[in-house]
Amino acid sequence: MKNYRYYLTTIFVVLGYAFIFISCKEKNGNKLAPPEIQVVEVIQQDVPLYREFVGQAYGLQDIPIRARIEGFLEEIAFEEGTSVKKGQLLYRIDSQPFMAEVAAQQSKVEEAHTYLVNATNELRRYEPLVKINAVSQSDYDAALASKEAAEAALQAAEANLEMAKINLSYTRILSPIDGLIGKTKARVGEFVGRSPNPVILNTVSNIQTIRIEFFLPETSYLALAREVEKDTEIEQKDRKTTTDVQLILADGSLYEENGRIDFIDRNIDASTGSMLVQASFDNPKRLLRPGMYTKVKIELFTAEDALLLPQRCVMELQGQNSVYVVNEENVVQARQVKATEKIGDLWLIEEGLNPGDKVVIDGLQKVATGLKIKPVLIEFESQTNQ
Question: Do 298 and 321 have their domain in common?
């Protein structure tokens, strides 16, 4: 019985001390200062909005080198993958059959010329005789027709000779432009110029300027057209009047030269709902090559007085975005927001915030709705180029 009373007394004493400890702790806790939490102010500024489109590169000129006659390839007079000059010899095709054809056509020209001389002389003899009725009019007319036929035959023979000379010139294939030549599709000894044998032997490209072709969806085209029209209407020297285009290479790096849109197709493809657009980029270092796949980055329009917030401030849960906003009494409140665009390490906020709102940026796990804090306003420094 004594042991029971002893244990009961001990329990009451322990509970008493615990109650006193908890009460003291609550009183002391109420006296603690609100925690210092870093906050940022919503950024308001005009923001250019970009879109990216996949494009393919072409040279300013991509000219196929064709075998315009049939024959055996006798010489390749260039080094593959190097620069060539306009008029430089690239290929030589066996010329003997074409030289023989020139000689044959030359003989036909001489034959036709001889026939013309005889017909002309015959007509001259008939001219005084027909005046004195020494020959009939029909004989004179026949002589005149023979001369005219001889003239036509000579013209035809000269045309055939010229064509034979042209074909002979095709045995020497020259570069049509200054440019970069690729890998040959035919080797010495091959018969070229007739399918399935090689007809296109190579391609020479002018890559001082590179054309990027890409397709622009109809909605993006409308936004771009309105922006260009707006820029054109504002006559200010410091305001651009053409849309600059940036190029993102396959490794993710940004090409150092800005391009310019120089062609927009006349119509929208009904099957895809997109429009062909071409942008040109200077290529002084010859880094860009035809056939490359790139991404074209275009400023479609500018969001005026847009609200921006560091991405670190935004919490996402089940597709919903929210932030902690600090009101005038320094009390934290959770608020849902609509974040639409990522601008570097910032979010563009379309709904849920107002200019001047202060939002918690650090210590999000330490705050909750209703908590009173001591906000420490900091200036956010973006680490990316917008």
Answer: no
Q: Which domain holds residue 83?
A: 69-94+171-198
Q: Average pLDDT over the chain, rounded to whole?
A: 86
Within-domain flag for 25:
no
CA distance 35 to 371: 9
CATH number of the domain bearing residue 148: 1.10.287.470
Whether pTM exceeds 0.85: no
d(C-alpha 231, C-alpha 234), whole Å: 5
Residue 196's SS3 state is coil
Domain boundary among 303, 335, 355: 303
Q: Give the domain CATH number at 321.
A: 2.40.420.20
Domain boundary among 284, 303, 322: 303
Give the closest residue to 108 by CA, choosing from 168, 161, 162, 163. Answer: 161
The CATH number assigned to the domain holding 220 equals 2.40.30.170
Residue 241: pLDDT band (50, 70, 90) is very low
Which amino acid belongs to residue 106?
Q
C-alpha closest to that of 36 among 253, 360, 333: 360
Q: Which CA distances in Å does 158 have to 101, 102, 150, 152, 203?
A: 13, 11, 12, 10, 34
pLDDT computed for residue 236 by the predictor:
46
97-127 in b/e burial notation, b at 16+ Cβ within 10 A? ebeebbeebbebbeebeebbeebeebbeebe
Q: 7-36, pLDDT tens digit by residue?
A: 555 555 445 555 555 555 554 445 568 888
Give how many domains the chain has, as a whole number.
4
Q: Evaluate whether residue 297 is within a structural domain.
A: yes
The helix/strand/coil state of 9 is helix
In terms of residues, how long is the chain?
A: 386
Query: CB within 8 A of 196, min separation 6: which ones?
Result: none
Q: Are 341 and 347 in contact (CB under 8 A)?
A: yes
